[in-house]
Amino acid sequence: MNEGQAGYPKGHKVHTAPAQAPDQESQEPRVVLQRGLYFEELQIGTVYQHRPGRTLTEADNVQFTTMTMNTQALHLDAAWSAEQPFGQRLMNSMFTLSTMVGQSVAQLTQGTIVAQLGMSDISFPHPMFHGDTLYTETVVVEKRLSASRPGQGIVVMEHTGRNQSGVVVGKASRTALFGSSQANNTKEFTISVSHEFTMGPALLFAPADRPERFAKAAERSDAVIIDLEDAVAPEAKAAARANMAACTLDPATTMVRINALDTADAALDLAALARSPFRTIMVAKAFDLGAIVRLSEYAVVVLCETAAGIIAAEELAKLPNVVGLMWGAEDLVASLGGTSSRFTTGARAGQYRAVALQARSQLLLAAGAAGKVAIDSIYADFADLDGLAEESEDAVASGFGAKACIHPSQVAVVRDAYRPSEASVAAAQELLAAADAAGTGVFAFKGQMVDGPILLHARQTLRRATPLVLTLAHIGALFPNARSLGERWD
């Protein structure tokens, strides 16, 4: 990385990359078409620096000004301008703006933009003079899929122009409609985002500042949640993001929990995610529909753990990029000013309080109504496996598709709860076979009337039986040196 190279404004750092060697094995030359970026390739928060710069001349100023029928003496009359506050002619600010936009074309919009939709917040904090050089950079600040034009998306960009000394000379916000690579039938690299949640049933949190735990968590669970939020201290978050971006776990069975979107940490989390292979994320303290829908390049699990989040769960579940919903008990009660989500003494010790039960049910209903997966909250007392087993069995019976774990010892308990018995599987198979033979919507079976909901329960039983789940005996055989369940896993 070099600073102050020729052709770059002072104070700007320049990243250089080695030239790629030609493909020795290819018999035909590889053809690379110069183009901008498609909708799914544009990353929120990324700074795109456009080079080369453009040195502005007197000829530029006179030609642009006269072509646009502008008779302003500040651009055309050298003698008059010499007596004005700046002592010389000023570059036409519309030329500066046009050049700022033009400098972004090759890197961002060449062949990928569908239409420019508008500009706003235009300002010129400092004038440009003849002989000054203009450098422009662009930040993508917002993006969302178009509701009316499939395969296209709306992107908001902020352009900033600087002179050769690094002084800001122009700023503008621009909104444009971009195409996607799929819509343009390209075979080039794109990031694939699945909008079907298939992880589980046992999801294990792994703190992102402990990368040595990542592989262990993957071995001992059905899916890993790399945690950038509560499990990581503020001073460790930068290192945690680097660990996550460098992680090599399978994206199909890994998601990343990011900080709440109304925090500064969230923007840094998303910037790190853009450098990673992971495209399923869990958004902490979710409640803002607009903020979630703008994460269109990700499959999102919304973590509803505040009063606002639970109230918004019904609408959040309807968003196209939301694949699942999870609730969080302790943060929810804290957001209400409470002290504990569970009773701590008496005959009901360990059981949820009424407000937590209502939130749990409300989220489950919201997810079910939208056809999305509901994920049950963690069981914080990881030493109480009996209590976890009871709660997991209730989660299965109620319709939660998965349950989050905070310790590897909890995984087997959750898996056991979700694994139907052999008798249940046999009964479901028999019932579905009878339904096929009956060929009608409602039929009698073993003295009972059977309809659609009962058949759905049977299919769900078979679905839970389909994945290969290792028993403790299998784990012991495969990993004879594995620690006992009672030991900590770090």
SSE arrangement:
Layout (H helix, E strand, L loop, with lengths): L1 E2 L9 E2 L32 E9 L2 H10 L5 H4 L1 H5 L10 H17 L3 E11 L9 E13 L6 E11 L5 E12 L22 E6 L6 H7 L2 E5 L9 H10 L7 E5 L5 H10 L6 E4 L5 H5 L5 E6 L2 H10 L5 E6 L1 H7 L18 H17 L2 E4 L8 H14 L3 E4 L3 H10 L3 H17 L4 E3 L2 E3 L1 H14 L6 H7 L12
Parallel strand pairs: 8-9, 8-15, 9-10, 10-11, 11-12, 12-13, 13-14, 14-15
Antiparallel strand pairs: 1-2, 3-5, 4-7, 5-6, 6-7, 16-17
Properties at a glance:
alpha/beta, 490 residues, 8-stranded parallel beta barrel, disordered N terminus, 16 helices, 22% strand, 5-stranded antiparallel beta sheet, elongated, single chain, disordered C terminus
Gist of the model:
The protein is α/β, with parallel strands linked by helices and 490 residues long.
Summarize the structure in words.
The chain has 490 residues and is of the alpha/beta class. The chain has 16 helices and 17 strands. The strands form four sheets. An eight-stranded parallel beta barrel has the order 8-9-10-11-12-13-14-15, surrounded by six helices. Helix 6 (237-246) packs parallel to helix 7 (264-273) and helix 9 (307-316) runs parallel beside helix 11 (354-370). The protein starts with a strand and ends in a 12-residue tail after the last helix.
